[in-house]
Amino acid sequence: MISHCRPASVAGMECRYRITRDGPRSTEQLVEAGRYGYAHSCVTSENFPVRAGTAAPREGEIVLLAFDHEVDAAQALAEAARLGLERPSYEDALYFGVEHPDVQEEHSVVFLHDPWVGFFGRRDVLCLWSNAGRRELGLEGFDDTWGPRHRFAFVGAGAR
Predict the structure, then answer these.
(1) Residue 157 has pLDDT above 70, yes or no
(2) Which residue of 25, 52, 100, 129 could cross-link 29, Cys pair, CB 3.0 to 4.6 Å?
């Protein structure tokens, strides 16, 4: 559930969600647990392996930032840093999709983790969205620009 939402200065809104990493699972197990209508074929353990240090059960906080204008990754990352938030990991995206499936039905959620370089050289990050009534797990270009309907996921300070 939502811990709380509040107005933020540069980012128009900030919402906080608790997530629990409930022990070691593979990328494929997390994608299956997310019950997506579509998951990009590149979201696999080969490309996005769940790292050993992130497998132990623990709680964390994901903070979603909303902007009322178009932003790029540098602008979103700068605002997150100003607010004391940490950059997410791709594991954060996988666990968030499992635990908060309804969020992406309202807004696309972009996780600006260290980008994965795709087959054609594009730097990609995981994104959760809804399309034609089905939840999807896909890849968005890290170097793209996003509009006000997107939310940007970060980790609350000290939540790692």
Answers:
(1) yes
(2) 25
